């Protein structure tokens, strides 16, 4: 497990839930999405109805689960949480759907990973508030149509393009989450430090923001490690110096690159003369899973201009050579 991975580890979920904003007001950043969502919720409240189904798309760690919880709390509704991979059979979904109460918010994380039969059941339920429950097994099984009370689905996906059109069309509102700016991440760590009762100096807050890859989950995780460090090696105050020392210990560099990112760049440069090299060859050469390289490391390296993806494979850019203190050979500069 890497300190810069955007997905949460199981162990970290409790720590995370303590830091979740509870109201839309408290949610930092994403100004456009926040305004749109506020309108959708206000309008539903005025009508005295459930909110439209809401789809949230964006990379992991940017606040989709948090927003689903906020939707439920703003609507004064109960929240049910599940995920695409957790629903193995359509029957699993049928039992969730048939237990919903009027006004409930059903959060489905990784909704693009629902199996086809569950997906079809879901869009019927979303559109007509109806589900067919199968009773019994084998030839004697019968299907009983059941009417559901009105409810709101909040779906989360890393890319809305991954959803089949019929499902995507059932959502009345789709919000896109963008990576956060440094000043927004700074506000997030300052708020988290306050909740954790940690003494965070402003310069250290900015430094954490810069190294968090635009991702609140990573910002909060770095804050926890830096706070540990300040407690063990000092008087608990997180100064710029203690933040630097802690980040060095965890091998997170000034650009937010960690060991894995540097291994990727060094691999391309030293073993494949800067590329192009295919993803699986590259991953194998550094002893990592292709999926880890592709989902944890690459998106940020591409976004920061250290790596480019071409049809022939991955290439380390001139900035990557420079970042590693190397100069790019003249014949590669073109
Ligand atoms: P996702 O579901 O997109 O993977 P989460 O909603 O689980 O992300 O957020 C990850 C962590 O980051 C949570 O601890 C949450 O409190 C924090 N977080 C995310 N977005 C914000 C935000 N806009 N303001 C404050 N904290 C945030």
UniProtKB/TrEMBL annotation:
Region (Head domain (RuvB-H)): 254-334
Subunit relationships: Homohexamer. Forms an RuvA(8)-RuvB(12)-Holliday junction (HJ) complex. HJ DNA is sandwiched between 2 RuvA tetramers; dsDNA enters through RuvA and exits via RuvB. An RuvB hexamer assembles on each DNA strand where it exits the tetramer. Each RuvB hexamer is contacted by two RuvA subunits (via domain III) on 2 adjacent RuvB subunits; this complex drives branch migration. In the full resolvosome a probable DNA-RuvA(4)-RuvB(12)-RuvC(2) complex forms which resolves the HJ.
Function: The RuvA-RuvB-RuvC complex processes Holliday junction (HJ) DNA during genetic recombination and DNA repair, while the RuvA-RuvB complex plays an important role in the rescue of blocked DNA replication forks via replication fork reversal (RFR). RuvA specifically binds to HJ cruciform DNA, conferring on it an open structure. The RuvB hexamer acts as an ATP-dependent pump, pulling dsDNA into and through the RuvAB complex. RuvB forms 2 homohexamers on either side of HJ DNA bound by 1 or 2 RuvA tetramers; 4 subunits per hexamer contact DNA at a time.
Protein name: Holliday junction branch migration complex subunit RuvB
Binding-site residues, DNA: 309, 314
Gene expressing this chain: ruvB
Domains: entry comment: Has 3 domains, the large (RuvB-L) and small ATPase (RuvB-S) domains and the C-terminal head (RuvB-H) domain. The head domain binds DNA, while the ATPase domains jointly bind ATP, ADP or are empty depending on the state of the subunit in the translocation cycle. During a single DNA translocation step the structure of each domain remains the same, but their relative positions change.
Small ATPAse domain (RuvB-S): annotated segments: 181-251
């Amino acid at each position: 497990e890497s300190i810069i991975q955007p997905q949460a580890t199981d162990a970290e979920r409790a720590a995370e839930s303590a830091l979740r904003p509870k109201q839309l007001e408290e949610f930092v950043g994403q100004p456009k999405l926040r305004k749109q969502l506020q309108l959708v919720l206000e309008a539903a409240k005025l009508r005295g109805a459930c909110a439209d189904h809401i789809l949230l798309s964006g990379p992991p760690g940017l606040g989709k689960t948090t927003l689903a919880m906020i939707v439920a709390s703003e609507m004064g509704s109960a929240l049910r949480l599940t995920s695409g991979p957790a629903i193995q059979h359509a029957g699993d979904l049928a039992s969730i759907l048939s237990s919903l109460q009027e006004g409930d918010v059903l959060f489905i994380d990784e909704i693009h990973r629902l199996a086809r039969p569950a997906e079809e059941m879901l869009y019927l339920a979303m559109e007509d508030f109806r589900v067919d429950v199968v009773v019994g097994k084998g030839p004697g099984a019968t299907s009983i149509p059941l009417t559901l009370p009105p409810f709101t689905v909040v779906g989360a996906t890393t890319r809305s393009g991954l959803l089949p059109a019929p499902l995507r069309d059932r959502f009345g509102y789709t919000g896109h989450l963008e990576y956060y700016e440094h000043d927004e991440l700074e506000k997030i760590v300052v708020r988290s430090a306050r909740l954790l009762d940690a003494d965070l100096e402003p310069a250290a807050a900015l430094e954490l923001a810069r190294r968090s890859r635009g991702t609140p989950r990573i910002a909060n995780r770095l804050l926890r490690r830096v706070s540990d460090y300040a407690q063990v090696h000092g008087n608990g105050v997180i100064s710029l110096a203690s933040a630097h020392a802690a980040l060095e210990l965890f091998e997170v560099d000034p650009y937010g690159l960690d060991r894995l990112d540097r291994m990727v760049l060094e691999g391309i440069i030293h073993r494949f003369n800067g590329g192009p090299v295919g993803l699986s060859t590259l991953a194998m050469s550094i002893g990592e899973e292709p999926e880890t390289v592709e989902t944890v490391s690459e998106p940020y390296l591409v976004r920061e201009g250290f790596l480019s993806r071409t049809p022939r494979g991955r290439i380390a850019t001139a900035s990557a050579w420079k970042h590693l203190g190397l100069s790019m050979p003249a014949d590669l500069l073109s």
